[in-house]
Every structure is written in structure tokens, then in C-alpha cells.
Design the sequence.
């Protein structure tokens, strides 16, 4: 125990169990050592530590890093958390100098600093992973820029789109996810170290120096806020929850596309599992688990919001509960991104089948209505009505719109000519959607190429 001066007895076992965070916050060891080295270097610069003591601290911390890395460090639950475990070991190794490290510092600013550093590192890793999923999507989109598939609204056949266009929709979502990570990073990049317990310190510390040494843009401006703010973790979790939701939507589509009635794509053995009873099964478990991880990530966000909402300033031990949701969400998000990139690269679309379904369900009805407006100058509402009658007729006969004869069409609208058949194919339909952001293969190829260049 590092604070035992005024305590006669030790904590009860249950107190120790509920209080200790070493079981999970050991993940912060790298950040804790970085923070302590920066703090010691600053203390030496302002003359609060001798050069010899600073040397001893730096090499002691380096040795501890090696112990932890090699799995030789004995974490002690009686020492509560990672900060006290490292500090106690340092003193064990180097003696008196180790006891000087905690000058002008509290665990409150220490943990706030370590955790920001951890989240910042996580943001950098996750941003690279999001980019990799985007790259995988862009590559597949470029391959399938011109391959039609049914586009749905209400999961009912709507209008043909291209598979490439559909995949590019997810790139747009992931680009916004990257933006949210970048925003979060920008705002979190202020250094709490030197805020001490809550009020700042009487020592003449140089907060700009530690901030710069740890790669922060600036020191935080209010010590009370600095030790009790967890917005950075909440923003991170919000970004995670939104992105996990995006990945879940794609995962849901992958599950649907893999199902026997659809068979739009096939996943290889690498991303599927079998059934222990049904020999024919090939289950898209990876996609299902990506879909499910959303629950954990959203739960983490709601959990931490709930922990924080009633806390008076400044630090309260409740805030120790900030780490597990963040660690868990980061891990779930990282796994989901890796699985998604893997599935996107692995999937083999059945383009012939998608093309066949793209034309079913009267998917080119809107093209027919647009033709009536463009060529016959019908008001759109009238064209909609005429087309509805033609769809009803085709449906009654059990054929596609393009299978109606010209005479049958003219019976409904006398002005219709042979030319109408040119707009009823799937290819003509997608090719006509040339408006900016539309599904025309030329547009899609251009967008895919643009993304490939951006992501290269
Ligand atoms: N393990 C603690 C946490 O994660 C460190 C800060 C403890 N501060 C304190 N005053 N007890 O929040």
C-alpha cells in the first residue's frame, strides 16, 4: 500500500477486490511508463530531481518495461492499480529516487494522462483498420462497378443498382467513422499531467514540457476538469458505437446475401463454419458475430455515460470503471473491422444471379414511368399511374414488363412506341442513373478509382 501513513489496519478482502483495478488497468503499463518518464525528465529540468535520480528513474522504468514485456513482472492486487504497481517496483529496484517520482503528481492526473494516451494509440490503430476495410471495399467496388444487382427499399425490389455502388455506400459511412475518430483525437490531445489531485500544484512545474514530450498539443487548462473529464472516452465510444452499427449493417447484408434463397455471394471456408448436425450447412458466423459485437460496443457507451452522469467534480472512484468498457469496445471494434475486411476480400459474388434478380420484381418500372415523362411529356403522376396499370397487367399474366407486347401497352397508353423497350433492361436502367452520386457504372468506376487513389 502506498498511502498507508494514516491507516492502522489493512483493507478487508472484499474492499481489496472491489477497489483493485490491476486486473484490467495493467493494459496501461506502456502509457504509464511513458508518462512517468516525461514527468521525471520535467522534474529534473526544473531542479526538483537530481540528474542522477532522473537517470535511475529512467533506467529503472526501462527495466520494468522489459519485465512486463517478458511476463516476468509480479502484479500485486494489494497495490490496487498499474500506477502503484509500477511505482512500488521502481522503488524496490532503485530505492529513494523511486519515492521522488510522485512529486507534483497524483494518480488522478496520472490515470487521466495514461488513459488519454491509450485511447489515442487505439484511435491510431483503429483508424488504420477502418482505412483497410475501405480499401478492401474500394477494390471490390472497382471490380464490380458495372455488375447489376437489385436495389432495395423496405427490402422490396426497388431499382437496379450496381454491386460496386452498393459497396461504395459503406465506404462513405466508414469515411465518416474515420472523421469521428480524427475529431475525437483532436479534442483529447491535451495533457492532464500536472493537474495533480484536483487543484494543481505549488511546485514550479513545466506542463508545456510534459505535454510536448508526450505528443500532446497543449496542457489542459483547468485542473478540476482535467482529472474528472472522460469526454474523450465517451467520444471514442460514440465513434465506436456508430462504426460498429455500420459494420453490423454490412454484416447483416452479408448474412442475407449468403442465404440459400439469395445466394448473391459465397464466403469460403475461411469465413464460415459448419453445423455439428446438419451436414449441408455453411454458416456466416463471422458476419453474425460482427453484427452481435455492436451490442457490446453500444453497451459500453451507455454504460460509461451512466457511470459519469451523476459525478460531482472532481475525481471519484467511479471513474475507475471507465477502462473496461473502453478496452472491451476497442477490442470488439478491432475484431469486427478485421473480420469485415477479411469477408469483403473473401466473398465471391454470383454476378449472373444478382443480374437476374436485378431485373425481377418489375425493377425497371420507374424507368418506364420516366420514359413516359421524357418522350410523351406525361406529368409524372400520370406516368406513375399508367405504369402501375402496366405492372398490374404483367403481374396478372405472370411476365416481366419487357415481355408485354406493344399492343398490350398501347391499350393502356396509345402514345407508347417500340422505343419504350430500350429502357426496360437492367443495363439501360443503371446506365441512365448518371446524376452525381448515382449508380451508373461510369460514375461508380470513377468513384471507386477516386477512393483507391485516396486510400493508396
Ligand atoms: N486506479 C485509479 C483509476 O483508475 C487511479 C486513480 C486513483 N485515484 C485515487 N484518488 N484513488 O481511477
Sequence:
Amino acid at each position: 500500500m502506498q498511502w498507508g501513513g494514516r491507516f492502522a489496519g489493512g483493507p478487508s478482502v472484499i474492499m481489496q477486490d472491489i477497489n483493485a483495478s490491476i486486473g484490467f488497468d495493467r493494459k496501461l503499463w506502456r502509457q504509464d511508463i511513458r508518462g512517468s518518464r516525461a514527468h521525471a525528465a520535467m522534474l529534473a529540468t526544473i531542479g526538483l530531481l537530481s540528474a542522477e535520480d532522473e537517470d535511475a528513474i529512467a533506467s529503472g522504468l526501462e527495466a520494468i518495461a522489459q519485465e512486463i514485456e517478458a511476463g516476468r513482472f509480479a502484479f500485486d492486487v494489494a497495490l490496487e492499480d498499474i500506477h502503484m504497481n509500477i511505482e512500488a517496483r521502481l522503488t524496490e529496484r532503485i530505492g529513494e529516487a523511486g519515492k521522488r517520482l510522485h512529486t507534483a503528481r497524483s494518480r488522478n492526473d496520472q490515470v487521466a494522462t495514461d488513459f488519454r494516451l491509450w485511447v489515442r494509440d487505439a484511435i491510431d490503430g483503429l483508424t488504420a483498420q477502418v482505412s483497410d476495410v475501405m480499401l478492401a471495399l474500394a477494390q471490390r467496388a472497382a471490380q464490380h462497378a458495372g455488375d447489376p444487382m437489385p436495389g432495395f427499399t423496405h427490402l422490396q425490389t426497388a431499382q437496379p443498382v450496381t454491386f460496386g455502388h452498393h459497396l461504395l455506400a459503406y465506404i462513405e459511412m466508414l469515411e465518416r467513422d474515420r472523421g469521428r475518430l480524427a475529431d475525437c483525437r483532436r479534442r483529447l490531445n491535451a495533457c492532464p499531467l500536472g493537474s495533480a489531485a484536483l487543484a494543481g500544484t505549488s511546485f514550479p512545474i513545466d506542463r508545456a514540457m510534459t505535454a510536448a514530450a508526450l505528443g500532446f498539443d497543449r496542457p489542459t487548462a483547468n485542473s478540476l476538469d482535467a482529472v474528472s473529464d472522460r469526454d474523450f472516452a465517451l467520444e471514442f465510444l460514440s465513434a465506436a458505437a456508430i462504426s460498429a452499427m455500420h459494420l453490423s449493417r454490412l454484416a447483416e447484408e452479408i448474412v442475407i446475401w449468403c442465404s440459400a434463397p439469395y445466394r448473391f455471394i459465397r464466403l469460403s471456408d475461411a469465413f464460415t463454419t459448419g453445423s455439428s448436425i446438419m451436414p449441408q450447412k455453411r454458416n456466416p458466423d463471422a458476419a453474425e458475430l460482427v453484427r452481435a459485437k455492436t451490442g457490446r460496443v453500444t453497451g459500453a457507451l451507455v454504460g460509461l455515460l451512466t457511470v459519469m452522469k451523476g459525478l460531482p467534480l472532481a475525481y471519484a472512484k467511479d471513474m475507475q470503471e471507465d477502462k473496461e468498457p473502453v478496452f472491451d469496445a476497442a477490442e470488439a471494434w478491432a475484431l469486427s473491422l478485421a473480420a469485415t475486411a477479411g469477408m469483403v476480400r473473401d466473398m465471391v459474388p454470383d454476378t449472373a444471379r444478382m443480374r437476374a434478380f436485378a431485373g425481377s420484381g418489375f425493377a425497371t418500372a420507374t424507368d418506364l414511368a420516366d420514359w413516359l415523362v421524357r418522350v410523351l411529356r406525361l406529368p409524372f403522376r400520370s406516368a406513375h399511374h399508367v405504369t402501375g396499370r402496366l405492372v398490374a397487367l404483367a403481374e396478372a399474366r405472370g411476365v416481366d414488363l419487357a415481355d408485354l407486347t406493344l399492343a398490350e401497352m398501347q391499350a393502356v397508353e396509345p402514345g407508347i412506341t417500340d422505343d419504350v423497350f430500350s429502357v426496360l433492361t437492367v443495363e439501360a436502367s443503371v446506365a441512365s442513373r448518371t446524376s452525381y452520386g448515382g449508380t451508373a457504372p461510369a460514375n461508380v468506376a470513377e468513384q471507386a478509382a477516386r477512393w483507391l487513389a485516396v486510400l493508396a
About this structure: Residues 21, 25, 81, 107-108, 111, 315, 317, 319-320 surround arginine (CB under 6 Å). The chain has a mean pLDDT of 96. The chain has three domains: 13-103, 108-356, 360-455.
